[in-house]
Amino acid sequence: MTDLDTFITGLPKAELHLHIEGSLEPELMFALAKRNAVTIPYASIEDIRAAYAFGNLQDFLDIYYAGADVLRTARDFHDLAAAYFDRAAADGVLHAEIMFDPQTHTARGVAFETVIEGLLSGMAEAEAKHGITSSLIMSFLRHLSEDDAFATLAEAGPWLDRIAAVGLDSSEVGHPPEKFARVFAAAAAKGLKLVAHAGEEGPPAYVWEALDVLHVDRIDHGNRALEDEALVARLVAEGMTLTVCPLSNLKLCVVPEIAAHPIDRMLALGLKATINSDDPAYFGGYVGDNYRAIAGGKGLDRAALATLARNSFTGSFLPAETIAAHLARIDAFVAAQ
Ligand SMILES: Nc1ncnc2[nH]cnc12
Ligand SMILES: [Zn+2]
Question: Is residue 27 flagged as an active site residue?
Answer without folding.
Answer: no
